[in-house]
Amino acid sequence: MDTGGANALLPAGLRDVLAPDAAHEANTLERLVDVFTLHGYERVEPPLVEFETTLLNEGGNALAEHMFRVMDPVSQRMMAVRADMTLQVARIASTRLAKEPRPLRLSYGGQVLQVRGSQLRPERQFTEAGIELIGADGATADAEAIALAAEALDTVGVDACTIDLNSPAIVRAVTANLQLPDAAMRELREALDHKDSAAVARLTNHDKTLGALVRTTGSAPEVLDELAKLDLPPAAAAELTRLTDVVALLRSAKPELELTVDPVEYRGFEYHSGVSFTVLARGVRGEIGRGGRYLSQSGEPSTGFTLFLDSVMRAVAPAETRARVFVPHGSTTADGASLRKGGFVTVAGLEDVADAEAEARRLGCSHMFVDGAIVELETN
């Protein structure tokens, strides 16, 4: 009985990545991390799974529902598969690197697994790449992280990148004055996420400040001017000043970078405490990255970002294919080495064949090595 189709079936949100895409993604990951390295961010590599309590202690409660869990047969303790690498890097910083000088700059790249995807990003297993800037609490640190995300993406060929800025702290400060019951607050949070002005007005008795926040979104300079006119609580006003400073720094450092502001965006920023951002690319569904300010478990002010490689790959040009050269059986090792040094991909014949050209075509080669020369095969 043929079970090939059944054996190829994968769970929803999981997929095989084949050639040449797998190599292209791996190369893109290394190029991103190399940009981080050039800015002083040292790479770390945490494990795929950790004890559940460790991940949750590092601020993972906001991500708990996204984590797969498994029993460790050795310790008989529950472990969780990482759904995000930020928390692990924060753990490393607060434990193994606790005595290292601050600010601490760390980078990472690796796979994560989540219980469920979203409508815009249905993938549940994907590669992340990012940085964490730990122990720095100024607007310059926020701007450094955002500018680095933009530079790294530009390096790998992501064009027309947009940074959508927000600060969960602004809405938290405004809603704190409302003193709503927990159920009403959850409903308000959902209404804000969906930009449902009518529901926000109903739940807050037509609070003018929240109503204005929902309506005010768009280009950063214009939005910040409008927000400056609002009568915000002191904590929200201070956070708006911080956001304004970050925008000014970015416009000075990267005047070509498109900046927008959405003051009520919250989904995906549950553990963030200050200026946060989403990275978007024209023509690509969903975000290609996100980041922002947070407090580590040890209380250190931190910021950083994560880029999602599956989305990044939809924004970059396809992989350039190198010519594949069939090297017939009996060729010398030096022949193959010389071809590879010249930038060709070699496919060695493992035995003598009657028709070398047919064998080259069968193996997907575009060229043959014949009598010391490279011969291009005619296209059928």
- Using only C-alpha atoms, the radius of gyration works out to 26 Å
Q: What's the CATH C level of the largest domain? A: Alpha Beta
Oligomerization category of the chains in this entry: single chain
What's the helical proportion of residues? Answer: 25-40%
CATH superfamily of the largest domain: Bira Bifunctional Protein, Domain 2
- Separation of the first and last Cα atoms: 36 Å
Number of domains: 2
Round the mean pLDDT to the nearest integer and report it: 92
**Shape annotation:** elongated
Q: Provide the CATH architecture of the largest domain.
A: 2-Layer Sandwich
Question: Can you list the strand order of the major beta sheet?
Answer: 1-5-6-12-11-10-7-9-8
The SSE string, one letter per element, is: HHEEHEEHEEHEHHHHEHHEEEEHEHEHEE
* Class derived from helix and strand content: alpha+beta
Biggest β-sheet, characterized? 9 strands, mixed
Low-confidence stretches: none
The overall strand count is: 16
Approximately what portion of the residues adopt beta-strand conformation? Answer: 15-25%
In DSSP terms (H or I, runs of 4 or more residues), the helix count works out at 14
- CATH third-tier fold name of the largest domain: BirA Bifunctional Protein, domain 2
